[in-house]
Amino acid sequence: MIAFLDCDGTLTKVKSSWEYLHRRLGLWENNAYSYQKLFRGGEIDYYEFCKRDALLWKGLPVSKVMDVMAEIPYQEGAGETIGSLRGMGITTIIVSTGLSLLVDKVKRDLGAHIAIANDLLTKNGHLTGDIRINVEYNKKGRLVEKILDSMKIKREEACAVGDGEGDTGMFKAVGLSIGFNPHPNMLPLLGHVLYTASLFNITEIIRNHG
After folding, report:
1. What is the pLDDT of residues 178-209, one digit of tens each?
2. How far apart are CA 114 and CA 24, in angstroms?
3. What are phi and psi of 25, to 5 degrees?
């Protein structure tokens, strides 16, 4: 079996690592927030949205970004959950539209098998202002289907854990969809819903499904 896990708001307590970094650097209210409004309104595409965000951080030392990312707390039971899933022989894959600087750290800290997120490009230890999009907004489903196909795993043998609208495609691409304190709009897509403080509660659902 394979488990796909969202990062922001699911494994971590922060809903958006992009927004968190902007706020910590004082770039949200007068800059990045307006870009989000343009994207939500359909006036710019996802790449342009991310590119404008990344340009705000051009020249920033990677070490500074990592210091900010280190502030982001994990959900209660996140490490135990990954450990338990691994112990059950389940491959754990983090799929996130967030920043790979955070998501790769989460993978290392929690012991997940694979992490896929969006890359801020760097040169000589500083951000260049360029971005590589590996996970497009609301297109996680395509990526999940591609992974399942490459690993020759049936959708019935896969589960997904997430919380927001960006996880829609991921939920639809697997046999078992689990919402962890999900947005109300997600409820029709979910096989199981948990409103709880601890992520570890999902392990029993997955164990029973397997």
Report:
1. 999 998 989 999 999 999 999 999 999 999 88
2. 28
3. -95, 5
Extended strands (E) in the chain: 2-5, 91-99, 114-123, 126-132, 158-162, 176-180, 192-194
Joined together, the tokens standing for residue 41 give: 């309104």
Whether the pTM exceeds 0.90: the reply is: yes
Residue in 91, 102, 98, 100 with CA at minimum distance from that of residue 160? 91
- Give the residue numbers spanning the domain of 100: 2-12+75-117+133-209
| CATH number of the domain that residue 113 is part of | 3.40.50.1000
| Cα–Cα separations (whole angstroms), residue 13 to 38, 82, 97, 181, 201 | 26, 16, 15, 11, 16
Burial class (CB in 10 A: 0-12, 13-18, 19+), 71: exposed
Angle at the Cα of 58 from the Cα atoms of 56 and 60, rounded to 5 degrees = 105
Report helix, strand or coil for 33.
helix
Cα 96–186–169 angle (5° rounding)? 45
Question: CA 5 to CA 94: how far, in whole Å?
Answer: 5
